[in-house]
Design a protein that fits this description.
single chain; about 290 residues; alpha/beta; Protein-Tyrosine Phosphatase, Chain A
Length: about 290
């Protein structure tokens, strides 16, 4: 109950802030984006008002093991520039410029925005429904997998544990050839299209004679149960392979599973070599 009330309070405060700052005023937003025309710079103060508190929040989070309500803290965001990030940013910016709204302000203005806002909200929901499938397709195009080629980005954190971004059933043969005996799925089904969900991946993995373990991790949810399940799955008769959207969650839970057994600097340094920043969870690594 406390968690629900705190979420409601935070959401209300966020919405009030959006209205006071002018983020729900489409003319002001479009004026901010019109840098080569009648530019309105006032939203720069809104940006600063968002960036500064978040910078402080990330600093405070790095020194804590859990939130003030005892919930798991999210891992540091993936800093790699991917095709999904670039394309998504361009689409978001184009929609923001055309409509003068983005999802947060649109929700805050839902009670007074009229029919035009209703159309925007319908388009936003449609985009949210389509996003997982589109994102997965972009991932496969970027990796050159639509042609059926295997070009996995396997990252060996240790001799017996490797991670990678999302794989496809066509990749399983290469994993077996590489000597892996177990595959761990750390990506929730809600993020991906049906053909890549856990049940389908399990069929492909077990058909190849490998073991399959399902340990889906919602971003930021590195609970003791999740960590314990991963630690158990990492104990196998040979090398273990884990995957998620980018490999970040699979590397975070790997590090947490060894907290107190392996020095934090070593865990963080190993992950950093492969582009994963685990500094945010240093307090949990002992």
């Amino acid at each position: 109950m406390v968690r629900v009330l705190s979420a409601a309070l935070a959401g209300a405060l966020f919405g009030i802030g959006l209205m006071i700052s002018g983020m729900t005023d489409t003319a002001k937003v479009q004026g901010w984006l019109d840098v080569f025309g009648n530019w309105n710079p006032t939203l720069a103060f809104v940006m600063a008002g968002a960036i500064v508190p978040m910078a402080v929040a990330w600093r405070l989070m790095a020194a804590r093991r859990a939130s003030f309500l005892g919930n798991a803290l999210p891992a540091a965001p993936d800093r790699r520039i991917s095709a999904n990030l670039v394309i998504g940013s361009l689409l978001f910016g184009a929609g923001w410029g055309l409509a003068g709204l983005c999802p947060g302000p649109a929700m805050a203005a839902a009670s007074f925005g009229g029919s035009g806002l209703g159309l925007f909200l319908l388009a936003m929901v449609a985009g949210m429904v389509a996003a997982p499938t589109v994102r997965s397709r972009i991932d496969r195009i970027a990796a050159g997998r639509l042609s059926g080629e295997t070009k996995m980005d396997v990252r060996h954190l240790t001799d017996t544990y490797a991670v990678s971004p999302q794989i496809t059933p066509q990749d399983i043969g290469a994993l077996k050839a590489a000597g892996f005996v177990r595959v761990i799925c750390n990506r929730p089904d809600g993020e991906i299209p049906a053909e890549l969900r856990a049940d389908e991946m399990r069929k492909a993995v077990e058909a190849a004679g490998l073991e399959f373990v399902e340990n889906q991790i919602v971003p930021g949810d590195f609970s003791p149960e999740i960590v314990a399940r991963q630690a158990q799955a990492m104990q196998a008769s040979g090398p273990v392979f884990a995957y998620c959207a980018s490999g970040n969650r699979s590397s975070v839970v790997w590090a947490l599973a060894q907290a107190g057994q392996v020095p934090a600097d070593q865990l963080i340094g190993t992950a950093a070599k492969w582009g994963y920043n685990l500094e945010a969870i240093r307090p949990r690594l002992g």
